[in-house]
Amino acid sequence: MSAWAADLRVAHSEANDKDGMLTFLGDPSGALTAALDMEMTADGPKSDGIIGRCKRFAVYAVNGEVKYVAISESESDPAGDDNPEATLAPAILDAILKVKDEL
After folding, report:
1. Are residues 60 and 103 in the same domain?
2. Shortest CA distance to 59 belongs to which of 49, 70, 73?
3. Is 46 within the bounds of a domain?
4. Residue 26 — φ and ψ, nearest 5°?
5. Residue 12: domain span
6. SS3 assignment, position 3
7. Nearest CA among 30, 97, 44 for reference residue 68
8. Strand, helix or coil at 10?
9. Angle of CA points 29, 83, 69, to nearest 5°
10. Is the pTM of this model over 0.90?
11. Residue 84 within a domain
12. 51 in a domain, yes or no?
C-alpha cells in the first residue's frame, strides 16, 4: 500500500500512526471485502482480475457507525471503472454534508 501512496504522492501513514493524512489499508485475504458484502461477483475470466476483486465503494462512518455507502457498479461495468463518480471525493463530500444535515 505504501507504493500506491508514493505513486499518488500523498502523505501516507501506517495503521495506527499519525504521520500522514491518509492511511492505505489492504485486504489481501478478502476478509473485509466479504464481511462488507463487497466482493465483485460478475462473470469474467480470472485474467481480467474479476475473481475475488472488491467492488469500487466508499463508506462514511462515524465512531464505527456507517452513515453512508456508495458503490460504483452497473450491469455492464461491474468494476465501476467506466463511471466511478459515485465513489469519488466530490460525491462523498456532498453525501457527508447531507448526512450531517440530517443528524
Report:
1. yes
2. 70
3. no
4. -100, 170
5. 1-26
6. helix
7. 97
8. coil
9. 55
10. no
11. yes
12. no
3-state secondary structure of 91: helix
For 59-71, the pLDDT digits (tens) are 988 888 889 999 9
Other CB atoms within 10 Å distance of the CB of residue 79:
19
**In this structure, are 60 and 19 located in the same domain?**
no
92 inside domain: yes
% of the chain with per-residue pLDDT over 90: 24
Total domain count, the chain: 2
- Characterise 56 by phi-psi region: left (phi > 0), alpha (psi -120 to 50), beta (else): beta
Q: Using an 8 Å Cβ cutoff, are 7 and 26 in contact?
A: no
Question: Are the beta carbons of 27 and 54 closer than 8 angstroms?
Answer: yes
pLDDT, position 70 = 95
Q: State the DSSP string of 33-66.
A: HHHTT-B------GGGT-TTPBPEEEEEEETTEE
Q: How far apart are CA 73 and CA 95, in angstroms?
A: 18
Assess whether 102 and 60 both reside in one domain: yes
